[in-house]
Design goal:
The chain is 48% helix and 6% strand. It is mainly alpha-helical and 98 residues long. Strands 1-2 form a two-stranded parallel ribbon.
Length: 98
């Protein structure tokens, strides 16, 4: 559940979500069209608490997410190159000298 704000530029997490996507969504609520001020995200963490563990888990999940996105983009670029080469007209390298 979120709150719709029209002038906020600070996001403070009272409790961390379990996924990077939910964390990004909460942070992104402060970004809007016409935003003039930088948005500050505050994540209070208590040492040796579940929040500290959860924050590490979120960072690990974000790393996995980024690796998958990078791999997907690399694979897409490779497939596009293969498709371009496959659709290019064949070039005859043999000259007809008869």
């Amino acid at each position: 559940m979120g709150i719709t704000l029209t002038a906020a530029n600070v996001v403070v997490f009272a409790g961390l979500p379990w996924t990077p996507a939910l964390k990004r969504q909460a942070e992104d609520r402060a970004w809007r069209n016409g935003q003039k001020w930088p948005v500050t995200v505050i994540i209070p963490l208590v040492l040796k608490s579940i929040d500290e563990d959860l924050n590490r888990l979120l960072e690990a999940k974000t790393g996995i997410e980024n690796e998958l996105i990078d791999a997907s983009q690399d694979e897409r670029a490779m497939m596009n190159a293969v498709m371009r080469n496959a659709s290019a007209p064949a070039v005859n390298h043999h000259s007809a000298t008869s």
